[in-house]
Amino acid sequence: MALDQWSKGRIEHILPPGGRIRILPFFALTRVYNRGAAFSFMNGAGAWRNDLFLVLASLVSVVMVNWILILPNRPRTLPVALSLILGGAAGNALDRILHGHVIDFLLFHVHGWSYPAFNVADSAITIGAVLFVWSLVKR
């Protein structure tokens, strides 16, 4: 969460909204605001969406923490996976509380196609989710 918030602060300091710095032919830093969920889902919804996202993130966090505490014989990688997911969710939730949107800045693009911009918290959530599934399948 600390790396996520630090990186978003640096981007806010370095780039204007919509600005872009090309790092590699297929990768750039940008500054965009995501008011929706993943891949800007519900981006056009009203102000109620932040409340909905915060409530859902809180509920999922409580369920995940309780689940890991009661799960017998849990793989050692499971707490790491859940920590990544919860830390990423907390980073994006903090953005919503402080700014009303999530700050995204990592942009991959190839030949006119670009993947939706994302941030360190999104990466932690994705890595955590993959590790979570792997931990359960490995059992």
TrEMBL record:
<keyword id="KW-0472">Membrane</keyword>
<feature type="transmembrane region" description="Helical">
    <location>
        <begin position="52"/>
        <end position="71"/>
    </location>
</feature>
<protein>
    <submittedName>
        <fullName>Signal peptidase II</fullName>
        <ecNumber>3.4.23.36</ecNumber>
    </submittedName>
</protein>
<dbReference type="Pfam" id="PF01252">
    <property type="entry name" value="Peptidase_A8"/>
</dbReference>
<keyword id="KW-0378">Hydrolase</keyword>
<feature type="transmembrane region" description="Helical">
    <location>
        <begin position="78"/>
        <end position="98"/>
    </location>
</feature>
<feature type="transmembrane region" description="Helical">
    <location>
        <begin position="118"/>
        <end position="137"/>
    </location>
</feature>
<dbReference type="GO" id="GO:0006508">
    <property type="term" value="P:proteolysis"/>
</dbReference>
<keyword id="KW-1003">Cell membrane</keyword>
<keyword id="KW-0812">Transmembrane</keyword>
<dbReference type="GO" id="GO:0004190">
    <property type="term" value="F:aspartic-type endopeptidase activity"/>
</dbReference>
<dbReference type="InterPro" id="IPR001872">
    <property type="entry name" value="Peptidase_A8"/>
</dbReference>
<dbReference type="GO" id="GO:0016020">
    <property type="term" value="C:membrane"/>
</dbReference>
<keyword id="KW-0645">Protease</keyword>
<keyword id="KW-1133">Transmembrane helix</keyword>
